[in-house]
Amino acid sequence: MFLVPLFASNLSTNKIGHRIEYLKSVDSTNTEIYRMFQNHSIQFGDLVFAEQQISGRGRRNNIWYSKPGESITCSIILKNNASDLLQKLPLLTGISIIKGIKQLTDIECELKWPNDIVYNSKKIGGVLIENKGDCLIIGVGLNVNENELEESIQKTTLSLKLIINRSVQRELLLAFILNHFESLMNQSLKSIIKEWESSCAHMETSINFHQSGKLISAKFLGLNQHGEATMKIGAEKKTITSGIIEL
Question: Which residues share a beta bridge with 210?
């Protein structure tokens, strides 16, 4: 069980996460938080945490598995009131997650474009940002205390417990992540891009990525001033806004 008082006592934010809706099971925390917002039962800055998602979604409608009592599966809702907030959020959310992990466990995780959390090239978490009118919804899925992962993802996925061979206090980890998240929101897009690149697992390396059903070989050059990926494909430098990178 997730201990909300323990989480709250370690939260140092001014606005983010002070009200948390703790749920045993939902279809998707992103869907649920928007439903609750429309029903006026939550406000901007609030958080929905679920022990289990029945229809959890990753990017490109992939399934996100979560196990009761083991994962961090949550969503935050924010007002889209800054011109560059949508550009900043996918980057700063990933940064805040690896900072929170480092603070609690001393594990050095990395980022995989556009918004995966990886360790030794294996995925331990991901972020799903959805833009709904004047609302921005940030969904986070993180493998924390799983001893065993779904067979279909075992070769490409890890949990924090499988890395350090001990359980991790989810309440502390989520509080630390949100503390970093709010701090990063006040930074410029330029500084966030620089920090994201410093934590990228594949900067200036040759990668393969899937886009529109094609597997494309490229060199990942970093992010442009808008936070979009820049890749060298053959002799041409291109801006890429979607795709899945293979490490």
Answer: 215, 244
The two three-digit tokens of residue 101, written as one number: 């992990």
By C-alpha distance, which of 183, 123, 132, 111 is closest to 156? 123
Which token pair is 217? 């070989």
DSSP 38: H
65-92 pLDDT tens trace: 567 789 999 999 999 988 899 999 999 9
3-state helix, strand, coil in the chain (%, to 5): 30, 35, 35
Averaged over 24-47, what is the pLDDT? 95
- Percentage of residues of the chain with pLDDT beyond 90: 81
Q: 198: Cβ–Cβ under 8 A, 6 or more apart, which residues?
A: none
- Give the architecture-level CATH label for domain 205-246: Roll (2.30)
Task: Report the interhelical angle of 170-185 vs 85-105 (nearest 10°).
Answer: 140
What are the φ and ψ backbone dihedral angles of 97, each rounded to 5 degrees? -65, -45
CATH topology (fold) of 4-198: BirA Bifunctional Protein; domain 2 (3.30.930)
> Which tokens sit at 228?
């979009």
pTM: 0.94
Candidates 215, 50, 203, 34; CA nearest to 129 is 34
